[in-house]
Predict the 3D structure of the following.
Amino acid sequence: MTATISNVLVAALCIGIGMNLWFLAEYLLHRFAMHHLHGRGIMSREHLEHHVHSSWSFDVTHLMSWTGVAVVGGLLWFPVGWAVAGTAVGILLAIGWALGYAFYEFHHARCHLAPPRGRYGRWVRRHHFQHHFGAPMSNHGVSIPVWDVVFGTHRRVERIRVPRRLALPWMLDADGELRPEFTTDYELVGRDVLDERQAGIDRARAFASVAPTD
Ligand SMILES: [Zn+2]
Ligand SMILES: [Zn+2]
């Protein structure tokens, strides 16, 4: 019985370590391979396009990301875990890594597509939309704030200023105004105009990793 409990605890620890390896990678990739490269390479380009529109929809690049994450789990973390403590630890580390990625992917998509539910849902949206609309060189960890705190890139503001043209659909009522339940966390700024000139400015600023103008 004691051996079973300790096995479960070790398994949970290995999965937790694997998830946190992903959360560290999430921070480093987002900061250095996406924002610092200013559009050089497909990963940076795709991510900065995401900043141009602040929308989320499934496309083929997600399949490439999922494959890349699975390959890293299988070819890097499994052998590391196996070398340190055997096959089971290698498998659990790789599973934890994949679960961390799934957690990130799910919550990032939900941030853009659906209103918050619960304390984490509210926090992760505020954290991520401060990154989108306030300071793109901050809050690089989407899922958890730990690595931003460690590396000094964590930013928190009382109210996030959201350019009207980039507002998330779930924020708005039928008249295009901010829903009253979100006025503590967000305010809409600027005009809801997306002409060619504004689209060019939005793209240039996203690829420079600076916040969009009002
Ligand atoms: Zn986003
Ligand atoms: Zn970003």
Notes: Strands lie at 160-163, 186-189. The two ends are 61 Å apart (CA to CA). The longest strand covers residues 160-163. Residues 50, 108, 112, 128, 132 surround zinc ion (ligand 1) (CB under 6 Å).
